[in-house]
Design a protein that fits this description.
2 domains; 2 strands; two-stranded antiparallel ribbon; 10 helices; 67% helix; Arc Repressor Mutant, subunit A; mainly alpha
């Protein structure tokens, strides 16, 4: 397959986008080995470091796996619900960018999905799910509101709850919605707001860990109500 440099996109983005399209279109099938890094670098007209960054992103999305060694390389994986979330996010990001939908509409859909998602997580969570959620909470407690890790951990938290629900389609949508809107960036993350948010996250996790769907849904609703209040206050004229 022939790849062409695209000067409009950033170097890593053009490599990642074209390889993803090739995989999802079937040009590369499950188990196929991608061209070597040096070959991809020459095709795209970029450095091998840029190619590695793009391949790392594809691996995180579940589209490829990387095998070390002389006979290793990058191999195409099954397209699963995690990669579905990436695709949904990209489509949503484009519609947001061109004004076809707005962030408020997305926020409403998040509410419709995340409250029942928390209830389902309380019913179907595994010990591994609870361990991951508690780990995320511990990481959040150890950060200040200025940390660049705050948005990523917020995404990880809500995505982990959706994963724990046992519904992969729901997980894909929740992940896509959070990765595109990154709601924490629209809040006034003062130390007080940051502390309250983490406390609310912890309450959701406790209810999920206890296997209490009603309490989990209620804790998530309380959390989302709080975020809406903070966001409205932030948007009011000084």
């Amino acid at each position: 397959m022939t790849f062409k440099p695209n000067p409009v996109r950033r170097a890593r983005e053009q490599v990642e986008t074209q390889l993803r399209e090739a995989i999802l279109s079937g040009a590369f099938r499950r188990g196929d080995k991608l061209p070597a890094e040096v070959e991809l670098a020459e095709s795209f007209g970029v450095s091998r470091t840029t190619v590695r960054e793009a391949l790392r992103a594809l691996a995180s999305a579940g589209l490829i796996s990387k095998t070390p060694g002389a006979n290793g390389g990058s191999f195409v994986q099954v397209v699963d619900h995690q990669s579905l979330g990436v695709l949904l996010g990209e489509s949503m990001e484009n519609t947001l960018r061109f004004g076809s939908i707005d962030h408020e509409e997305v926020a409403r859909v998040r509410r419709l999905l995340e409250i029942p998602s928390a209830a389902l997580a309380a019913e179907h969570r595994t010990e591994k799910d609870v361990e991951l959620l508690n780990y995320i909470i511990a990481c959040q407690k150890g950060l200040t509101v200025e940390s660049p890790e705050v948005p990523r951990l917020d995404i990880d938290f809500h995505t982990a709850i959706a994963e724990a629900s046992g519904n992969r389609v729901l997980s894909s949508f929740v992940s896509a919605l959070h990765r595109v809107t990154r709601p924490v960036l629209f809040l006034d993350l003062s130390p007080q707001v940051g502390k309250a948010t983490v406390a609310q996250h912890a309450a959701v996790v406790r209810a999920i860990s206890d296997g209490n769907p009603g309490a989990a849904a209620g804790a998530m609703e309380e959390h989302l109500n709080y975020l809406d209040t903070v966001r409205r206050e932030r948007q009011q004229p000084a």
